[in-house]
């Protein structure tokens, strides 16, 4: 389980799934850079990691803003060292019926959920290529498999992220850098609790009769980040309690 003190960037780690991933990778000895637009949330996660004996750097950054991401990468390298692991987790998930959706909202969702991972990956990848070792883990969504009403913008953005992951997995397959995806099912986070979904009623419809916990996603991320996953790229670990298969 040891990540050998490698530096991991986790975007959106100030809350929910990203926080659980950051805590888990830190447990596995990675040194964590938390990049989140929410400064207070990022600091809170960093404090939790330090309390469990780990190393964490909280950086307030909008992952869709190129200058902010460049500055975050520079600071991460200066304070922690070369970036070896990247988890593109930051995202937003509004619900708005298609015909009522403002075009600006579409642009905002694409900017954060798709352009964000594009920009962040471009900043982090050169370190991994120089080392001949790297892990990029993209948090997609089971809604790419199932669709989701009133989320045309969101599902479009996550579908784009699936395509990006596959393209980069092939382009960089010979380099020692892998690109994989985790599409969460319904996971108990502030995002889900803010959605117009009755999470507890939904849980009863799931094969496992429970919605997922952020730690369920963190366990999949820890595996993909590990040495054990070195022959896996362009793949998907669907973490959804058995609801969607294939
Ligand atoms: P969350 O809202 O609890 O956390 C998201 C984090 O991302 C927050 O800390 C937020 O501040 C940060 N963030 C938002 N915009 C940002 C930006 N522009 N720059 C930097 N940080 C930004 O949500 P979550 O449920 O933990 O979701 C994490 C990821 O998992 C998202 O990509 C989401 O789409 C995906 N996902 C979640 C579920 C679920 O059921 N919770 C299901 C499928 C996919």
UniProtKB/TrEMBL annotation:
Record-annotated Ketoreductase domain positions: 6-185
Lineage of producing organism: Bacteria, Pseudomonadati, Pseudomonadota, Alphaproteobacteria, Sphingomonadales
Protein name: 3-oxoacyl-ACP reductase FabG
Species assigned in the record: Novosphingobium aerophilum
SMART domains linked: PKS_KR
SUPFAM superfamilies xrefs: NAD(P)-binding Rossmann-fold domains
Pfam families assigned: adh_short_C2
Family from the record: Belongs to the short-chain dehydrogenases/reductases (SDR) family.
PANTHER family xref list: 3-OXOACYL-(ACYL-CARRIER-PROTEIN) REDUCTASE (PTHR42879), 3-OXOACYL-[ACYL-CARRIER-PROTEIN] REDUCTASE FABG (PTHR42879:SF2)
Domain of life: Bacteria
Xref: InterPro entries: KR_dom, NAD(P)-bd_dom_sf, Sc_DH/Rdtase_CS, SDR, SDR_fam
NCBIfam families registered for this protein in UniProt: PRK07231.1, PRK12826.1-2
BP GO terms, sorted: monocarboxylic acid metabolic process
